[in-house]
Design brief:
The protein is of the alpha/beta class and 298 residues long. It has two domains: 151 residues, no CATH class; 139 residues, 3-Layer(aba) Sandwich (Glutaredoxin). It contains twelve helices and six strands. A five-stranded mixed beta sheet has the order 4-3-2-5-6, covered by helices on one side. Helix 9 links the parallel strand 2 and strand 3. The chain starts with a helix and ends with a helix.
Length: 298
Amino acid sequence: MALGLLFVVSAILKIIDIDSFEIYIYSYHFFSLDFSALVARGAIILELVLGIGLISNCFHKLMWWGSVLMLLGYIGLLCYALVLGRTDNCHCFGDYLQFDPKQSIIKNIVLIILFLLIYPMKGWKFRFQWPALIGMALACSVGVFAVSPPDTFIPALKEANNLNLNRELFDEALQDPPLEEWHLSQGKKVVCIFSSSCDFCKMTAQKLSLMQRFYDFPETDILYVFMGTEEGVEQFFEESESTRYQYVIYDDLKRLLKINNGVFPVLLLLEDGEIIHEYGFRNMEEREIKKFFLSDAH
């Protein structure tokens, strides 16, 4: 029961910080950004089913093998993380408890030892246990997707493109300090409008940094435009673990809030000063961003 409860708590904490968990999975670049969202929820559903199964003590051997194989799979992934030199939080308990790969491997080994101790135990059976197991798995799946549907499952997010920015004011701002010196009207550029204290801005920066690394976009063509202070920007880069791209702090706060209608974050793809795509955190399109940069020699 204790091991099952631990799995259930782990799954719930992952759901609470699902955005960070998605980005963590995407950071390995095994899957696309959209598919990483499905993998994240699949991992949560598996933990819930195993946890509830362990608590109920039904299907003892099935739940035992499922749990041990899951832990071994996580250990393999964490060993790969160590090979890559990663020391970031593995999100096994969301952001609530921070474990680096080494700590998480030790934790999983301890759990496997505990599972070895309960292997000889007998589970209990009842007449309709298989329908009950299937029903529980379906209920967990529906519950996870109802509580936290992937962004791609919400059509309204896709339709929200190009609604946040006052384009007329933005075009004027490109010709005035401090943006005029960055020559944003020439070639392909990415401009991100962030608040240095905004958590969704930090996660947007994480996503963009990963895409830039995966697809080798030119770093010099990315500009962050901040609302905030130098101290806030330093904290932003530290907490977001974003690549330290070029940035400006926009002093005319009133003008900036009129440009983005008070919405943060805003990510813009510009070609010769024309806005090709506009995104928020929820509707970033990996394929469009990749195509934008790699569609021709750059």
